[in-house]
Amino acid sequence: MTDVVMPQMGESIVEGTLTKWLKKPGDRVERDEPLFEISTDKVDTEIPSPAAGVLAEILVEEGKTVAVNTVVGRIDETGQAKAAAAPAAEAAPPPPPAPAPAAEPA
Q1: What does the DSSP 8-state code read for residue 6?
Q2: CATH of residue 47
Q3: Which residue from 6, 21, 24, 27 has the least number of CB within 10 angstroms?
Q4: Segments forming the whole domain that contains residue 45
Q5: pTM score
Q6: How many Cβ atoms from other residues are within 10 Å of residue 104's Cβ?
Q7: Looking at residue 101, what is its pLDDT?
Q8: CA geometry: angle at 9 spanning 6 and 12, to 5°?
Q9: Could you tell me which residues come within 8 angstroms of residue 83 by beta carbon, excluding any fewer than 6 positions away?
Q10: 91 occurs within a structural domain
Q11: What is the pLDDT of residue 66?
Q12: What is the distance between the alpha carbons of residues 64 and 78, in angstroms, rounded to a whole number?
């Protein structure tokens, strides 16, 4: 897993607001592809992904202000996210119990 952190956008900047996620958990992302948007007192910008893989977790919701270097999300470089694994488990529900055999008419 690769941690996605709130970057420091300047010497005097100590925090930033995560304004928008451009990907959802389970989405594939390439290295340097825009991943989320931030706003600080000096700049509003898109932040690129630090690695290629699948966005596994979002740890900081949109609209939250966090300190520089706070982990805001995680990328699974193996390409498998928790969110992507859950639907696969639900795709094959156990078969319903077999109905009782019907009596043959005489």
Answers
A1: P
A2: 2.40.50.100
A3: 24
A4: 2-83
A5: 0.71
A6: 5
A7: 57
A8: 110
A9: 24, 25, 26, 56
A10: no
A11: 95
A12: 28
Count CB atoms within 10 A of the CB of residue 49.
21
Residue 90 lies in a domain: no
Reduce the DSSP state of residue 82 to 3 states and report it: helix
Cα of 13 vs its chain's centroid, Å: 25
Return all residues near 7 (Cβ < 8 A) that are at least 6 apart: 16, 38, 47, 68
Q: How far apart are CA 35 and CA 21, in angstroms?
A: 6
Query: Model confidence over 29-77: pLDDT tens digits?
Result: 999 999 999 998 888 999 999 999 999 999 999 999 999 999 999 999 9
Q: Is residue 104 part of a domain?
A: no
Q: Which amino acid is at 13?
A: I
Residue with tokens 């966090």: 66
100 is a domain residue = no
Side by side, which strands form the sheet with 2-5?
Answer: 2-5, 71-76, 53-58, 28-29
**Residue 9: per-residue pLDDT:** 83
Per-residue pLDDT for 104 more than 70?
Answer: no
Element housing 20 (H / E): strand 15-21
How many domains, in total, are found in the chain?
1
